[in-house]
Amino acid sequence: MDLNEPKVTRLRLLFSSNKTDVTEDLSKDLLSWSYSDKETGQADEITLTLQDKTGKWASTWKPDGGEVIRAYLSSGTATFPGCELYCGSFYVDTVRFSGAPKIVEIRAVSIPLSKPIRRLKRTRAWESKDLKSIASGICTDAGMSLVFDSSLNPTFDRIDQNKEADLSFINRLCEDSGLSLKVTDNQMVIFDQEAYESKDPVATFVLGESNILRYDFETAQSESYKSVTIKWRDTNRKTKDTAASFSWDLKDPATKKTNPAVMSYTYTDPNASDSDQEYYMKRRATSQSEAMRLAKAKLRSLNSHRMTGSMTVVGDPLLSAGTVIECKGIGAFDGNFIIEEANHSYGTSGYTTDLRLRRVNNDY
């Protein structure tokens, strides 16, 4: 590659179900764009800001609500355009018209608000089902496909969905299990946070040497927990005499009669400080191994933001949510971080990527 050749960033856009390529027509009016790629629990977004001197984007060319936009991003040179990243399918959610001068902003999301999976609240019980089976059933109802990238697939003897949208419900189950959920391109993707955090970095950034435009890292003592204690009811040990006196109190008075059906398990961070907080929870569990899984997942979640950071770097399509980068030259903050959100944007300052980061946890 000729280092003297100017860098070219290209956002290729296909509109509507017939995938009409509007890149050339749209680029004449395109002032800026941004693509927000999130690791878990939230919809990805794309925003296009257009000049509208003739008023066509606010009238005859105005996209309808729910119209499909497929986006592809590449960055390189005219000779070597670079690899093209498929950002996914997006559904037009809002169109804003402002001035002067006349500006139209089109915002589209990866999950349309009108889809029942996001808005329709259901009440039902799932019995003797594993997480993958529940997710598969929800995807079938929504007309979506499922990608289940996890060796962990917990089974539930019974789990209740009470006046809860399917997407919110399955996301809650994933969070309780230490898994991440992402909806993109009409697919539900469930993956193991622990496994993804242990992957090799896709890039290394060295302060003072790499294309870092801005950085900010911090630690938060308020986000530090040393243990999670879970109490659950062992139905195999429940008796007629003890069932009625069952209490969820996590710290029972010494004089209170103990219930043999109430079990307790504590999962502890091997590197925790004595000054760190303790967390107590109650959950439905069928065994100590399930209680351990729930406690470990909760402790990982509680401690996930003990060390966080953000960086703005020269734009790179390969920096995507859920991938790991290595940071060097920042002292105690050196190490691997997982990208929670990558916001790719192009405007008057050129192409940049804003990263929201958290330190990986490879200890447990």
From TrEMBL:
SUPFAM superfamilies: Phage tail proteins (SSF69279). It comes from the Bacteria. Pfam families: Phage_GPD. This is Late control D family protein. The lineage of its organism: Bacteria, Pseudomonadati, Pseudomonadota, Betaproteobacteria, Burkholderiales.
